[in-house]
Write a structure and sequence with these properties.
Elements (H helix, E strand, L loop, with lengths): L1 E7 L6 H5 L3 E4 L13 E9 L28 H24 L22 E7 L1 H4 L2 H12 L3 E7 L5 E7 L7 E6 L4 H8 L5 E4 L5 H6 L12 E13 L7 E3 H8 L17 E5 L4 H11 L9 E3 L2 H9 L4 E6 L7 E2 L1 E4 L2 E4 L3 H5 L6 E7 L7 H11 L1 H9 L9 E2 L9 H7 L2 E9 L9 H16 L7 E6 L6 H21 L6 E4 L12 H7 L1 E7 H16 L1
Parallel strand pairs: 4-7, 4-8, 10-15, 11-12, 11-13, 20-21
Antiparallel strand pairs: 1-2, 1-3, 5-6, 6-7, 8-17, 9-13, 9-14, 9-17, 15-16, 18-19, 19-22, 20-22
Helix pairs in contact: 11-12
Length: 554
């Protein structure tokens, strides 16, 4: 491997710049200071890595062997140690990123086994997949994970491309950095990387497909709670330019726009001019979700401009008065998100509450996928950290919707049943709904984890949970009396689960197929409508707050 030398000029804020030492950077990676991230000033010619330990950069146009002695500054012993650590921690992961995720090992032989984590290269964990998750969220999680393990000198370094990052830190007892590599080239690559063992954890912004699940059957049941982990929630926001007066669209109108059936803004009652379409690329989980939820089998208009990077798409729509696109919640930036309506359900904007409860029709889950048998100890440790309260705080800090349970005042629809209105009049809604596996009476993977989160929230508030209200709902398939019974049985199932955890709900009711949050004409819509809402009486909330205040005065 060849390195190039540079100096950091950020003397006020950078330790390396203050020491005025030359810094080796592997060729092929960003030419920036590893300490402060600032651009480096080029010094000398490129040098093979095996030669750098005994020499410093040569003058321009000279080789290390022929460089004039007067122009060469011998590096200190400390620098030699630092350079060696840098080469191990930065260069080797970069070589891996460039080759390993493409199905070629670091030895250049296609199909050869990828280097094992925790090897001499000190790559302790490898993640691959969704750009939505891997752009900023997972690097931030990796940073905090390192710190939770007591690591020092934790930093994020650039990879071989904008979609690749390296997070490193020195774990207790180690004298050199450990590395977590992140390659965020789209959700589809999560499953190919798991299959060829070039990653330990797959990141996906949509659920695994049946054909992908079949190819990974040797790793276990990829839809089970042991393999499929819900990292957080996101809403696919439909965005327009901030100057566009458009306030809402139906899901059918959005489909017709993105398939080219509606090509002029005047057709949706706002302004004039041709509609310019912006979309994510085919590898994107965001596009997969949009295709499944909105396009439903129809092709995206051929004239759409495609983007691998979410930020670039958002910026493009922000700069085009005639533009429209779709993006994850954290990437709205300077664009405007519009409300989305669906047949049988009112228009909702993507907010923290509407996405957390998954009532927003374009809400989606973010996933981490792992083999049933851990490939190394850090895999399970990282997933447990990501799903913990501390990890979920990182999810929220990065613009996604975390799964930490919160209380929120929720508007009740005018068409709601009178009994529902009466029961919720003096109550607040918890920021989740319990949902169920397709065709089964069992909770899905998220609901299983959410039960424990609800119990923890109630315990933290010092409440016995005697003000909990559970309301079950069903889709419209079948006779009304059957749907009524199904909805009540779902509410009772959640009630029994809470009772086992020491909480007895005050009210358990079923409302059949009333109050749909999505269309009953699609599988996705029916799945959203099969749910149990959870509310808490304000008197219980107030009593818990009063008890907490009394304890603080004691």
């Amino acid at each position: 491997m060849t390195v190039q030398w540079g100096r950091c000029t950020n003397i006020k804020n950078c330790r390396d710049a203050k020491q005025r030492q030359p810094i080796p950077i592997p060729v092929g990676t960003a030419f920036v200071c590893p300490e402060c991230g600032g651009a480096l000033q080029q010094e000398g010619a490129d040098v093979p890595s095996e030669a750098f330990a005994g020499a410093s950069p040569a003058a321009p146009g000279a080789t290390p062997a022929t460089a004039p002695a007067a122009r060469v500054k011998k590096p200190s012993a400390a620098l030699v140690v630092a350079v060696a650590a840098l080469i191990v921690a930065v260069a080797v992961p970069l070589v891996f990123l460039v080759t390993g995720f493409g199905g070629v090992s670091t030895w250049g032989k296609r199909g050869a086994a990828a280097p094992a984590p925790n090897s001499a290269q000190n790559i302790i964990l490898r993640l691959a997949g969704s750009n939505t998750i891997g752009d900023a969220l997972v690097p931030a999680l990796a940073e905090d994970f390192f710190r939770s393990q007591g690591a020092t000198d934790v930093r994020i370094l650039p990879g071989a491309s904008p979609q690749e990052k390296i997070v490193q830190g020195v774990l207790p007892g180690d004298g050199f950095p450990s590395t977590i590599t992140i390659a965020a080239h789209g959700s589809a690559t999560a499953f190919t990387a798991l299959a060829d063992k070039s990653c330990d954890i797959g990141m996906a912004s949509r659920r695994i497909k049946p054909d992908e699940e079949a190819k990974l059957s040797s790793l276990g049941d990829m839809t089970s709670a042991g393999n499929e982990h819900i990292l957080g929630l996101d809403g696919i926001a439909v965005i327009v330019n901030a100057s566009n007066p458009l306030a809402e669209l139906s899901k059918d109108q959005i489909k017709r726009i993105f398939t080219g059936d509606i090509a002029e803004w005047s057709k949706v009652g706002t302004g004039h001019g041709a509609i310019e379409i912006y979309a994510r690329d085919d590898k994107s989980g965001t596009f997969d979700s949009f295709k499944s939820i909105v396009l439903t089998g129809a092709p995206l208009v051929a004239s759409a401009r495609r983007f691998e990077d979410s930020n670039a798409l958002s910026d493009a729509v922000s700069g085009d008065p005639n533009g429209i696109g779709f993006i994850g919640l954290p990437f709205i930036h300077n664009a405007k998100a519009i409300a989305v309506s669906e047949k049988g359900a009112g228009a909702l904007k993507p907010t923290r509450l509407t996405v957390a409860t998954e009532d927003y029709s374009l809400s989606r889950r973010l996933y981490l996928y792992t083999p049933a048998t851990a490939r190394n100890k850090f895999m399970r440790m990282f997933v447990e950290f990501a799903l913990s309260k501390q990890g979920q705080d990182v999810v929220a800090a990065n613009g996604f919707v975390a799964q930490n349970v919160e209380l929120a005042s929720a508007a009740v629809a005018e068409q709601a049943p009178d009994a529902y209105k009466q029961l919720t009049r003096n109550a607040e809604r918890l920021s989740l709904d319990f949902r169920f596996q397709a065709g089964k009476a069992e909770q899905d993977n998220k609901a299983l984890a959410d039960l424990d989160r609800v119990v923890s929230m109630i315990a933290d508030r010092g409440s016995a949970g005697n003000g909990i209200l559970l309301f079950g709902f069903a889709d419209s398939t079948g006779a009304p009396e059957v749907n009524q019974a199904l909805s009540l049985n779902r509410a009772r199932l959640i009630a029994n689960q809470l009772i086992q955890r020491g909480i007895k709900p005050a009210v358990v009711r079923g409302f059949g197929s009333e109050l749909p949050v999505a269309s009953n004409d699609t599988d996705e819509g029916r799945e959203k409508n099969r749910r149990v809402e959870i509310w808490m009486r304000r008197t219980t909330i107030a009593a818990a707050a009063s008890a907490e205040a009394e304890q603080s005065h004691e």
